[in-house]
Amino acid sequence: MDKDFSKGAIWKITLSQSIPLMLAQLVQLLYNIVDRIYIGHMDGGNSTALTGVGLTFPIITFIVAFAALFGNGGVPLFSIANGAGDKNRAERIMGNSCCLILISSGVLMLTGYIFCKPILYLLGASDSSYVYAYDYLKFYLAGTLFSMLTTGLNSYISAQGFPKTSMLTTIIGAILNILLDPLFIFVFGLGISGAAIATVISQIVSAAWIISFLIRKAPLALRLKNILVDTDLTKNICKLGTSNFVMQGTTCFVQIACNSTLQTFGGDIYVGIMTVLNSVRDVFFLPISGLVNGAQPVMSFNYGAKKYERVKQSIRFNTLVGAAYTVLAWLLIVIFPSFWFRIFSDDAALIAPGIHAIKIYFFGFIFMSFQFSGQSVFQALGDARHAIFFSLLRKAIIVIPLTLILPRLGMGVNGVFIAEPVSNAIGGLASYITMRKTVYNKLNVQNGINM
Q1: How far, in whole angstroms, is CA 139 from its chain's centroid?
Q2: Mean pLDDT value across the chain
Q3: Residue boundaries of the structural domains of the chain
Q4: Sign of CA dihedral 208, 63, 54, 288
Q5: What is residue 432's predicted lDDT score, i.e. its pLDDT?
Q6: Beta-carbon count within 10 A of 136 CB
Q7: Which residues contact 105 (CB under 8 A, 6 or more apart)?
Q8: Which among 101, 112, 43 is positioned nearest to 72, based on CA atoms?
């Protein structure tokens, strides 16, 4: 029986959903983080290998963007239908998402193989770093289907009230990846290719686990008859999923802008530094991302059940906890900057300028809590228009132009790192204030509360 999110204390329900998701996402992150740690210590700590794998980030992010478009785009609709008691529609939404993931994964894999070399050079590869990037990507692309199924369908498990099962999905794959990485990289002597092979094997196991649960054990099951493209459902899924796609897609273009600009103004060493910064950012994003992802089905369910006061309680809780966490995270980064770099590499040439860069890059990290809070509410309640706009605002409208312009105004590589905190402040505040003035006030009116 799937859980009824309309009963019980909001903060308890949110944490019961979020904590397993945080752990699951932490373990999921290990897929890539462990690769980077091992790769960063290959060849006596030479940072060129780390730079090479960093060049693949935009491509991997682009693949994740499509998984978010078709997977996460369907979850709010799925939860709203579930909260309204329409089980058949909920199952059709999940089946439609799965079909879209299957189709898009094949297209993305073929495209990646065909245009691999020109794409990597466009992303800022040099002749030396290209060798490492290609060795990693040629194997990683083979697992596109399994990567997208894992990312796109796992949320349907937690949305039905099984966050621990969702967590177990990623734990299984990540532990396998941790065990296989040193085996393939060092024992078999496959180097960076071994890291990619270990990741693909782990993703295959995770995808198999998810499909098995959704078919055999989930209250709302993934049924073969529903794995097809329904035009109306596809439009609605894409409409909501576009905000996720834009957020991930613009991340891809931000990475392209950063890598190419850093290659121009600083060379391979600064592309390597950005690889570490991205890795550290991913680690510190996890708790707040898990919080809002765990809260989304709770908000969607209560919105569908017309429990508007409970939706507001969830919004307030997410904001307060998110703000407190991001302040703590920022303090840990600025107090112990070298610690985060030494996890990934012992290269002194990387660490010295990297410490300066990390302090700039994470300044004002608290504003990301407001971005996440506002963005998650828009998506959970089906406000696709605002969700899409604020996805574009922070990255496409602010970060990318600043990344390209500031270095050319005499700031050099520092301009690339300064662009991040500026965009966090403007984008985060704009997203949150707009959410409070629109969606939050709308909930007050619907709940019969006068401001």
Answers
A1: 21
A2: 88
A3: 10-446
A4: negative
A5: 93
A6: 26
A7: 63, 66, 144, 145, 147, 148, 149
A8: 101
Looking at residue 278, its pLDDT comes to 87
pLDDT tens readout for residues 64-99: 899 989 988 899 899 889 988 999 999 999 999 999
Q: Residue 1: its pLDDT value, please?
A: 42
Sign, CA torsion 157/161/162/163: positive
Considering only CA atoms, which of 287, 296, 288 is closest in space to residue 314?
296
CA 134 to chain centre: 23
Q: What pLDDT is recorded for position 449? A: 46
pLDDT at 383: 83
Tokens 């909001």 sit at which residue?
10
Single pTM value for the model: 0.74
The string of pLDDT tens digits covering residues 12-43 is: 888 887 887 777 667 666 666 777 788 877 76
Q: What amino acid is encoded at 61 in this protein?
A: T
C-alpha–C-alpha distance, residues 430 and 421, integer Å: 14
HSE (CB half, 13 Å, CA atoms) of 364?
18
- Which amino acid is located at 356 in the chain? H
CA dihedral 169, 171, 172, 177 (to 10 degrees): 130
CA 406 to each of CA 89, 212, 398, 416: distance values in angstroms, whole numbers, following the listed order? 49, 50, 12, 7
- Report the amino acid identity of residue 323: A
Q: Which two tokens stand for residue 11?
A: 């903060």
Q: Are 334 and 33 in contact (CB under 8 A)?
A: no
- The residue type found at 434 is T
Q: Give the pLDDT confidence score for residue 451 in this predicted structure.
A: 35
Is the separation of the CB atoms in 161 and 213 below 8 Å?
no
For residues 205 and 244, the model is more confident at: 205
- Residues 99, 102: Cα–Cα separation, whole Å: 5
DSSP secondary structure letters along 224-247: GGG-S--HHHHHHHHHHHHHHHHH
Q: Using alpha carbons, list the distances in angstroms from residue 101 to 12, 27, 68.
A: 33, 22, 9
Whole-number pLDDT of residue 63:
94
Q: Which residues contact 114 (CB under 8 A, 6 or more apart)?
A: none
- How distant, in Å, are the alpha carbons of 182, 330, 437 from that of 323? 38, 11, 19
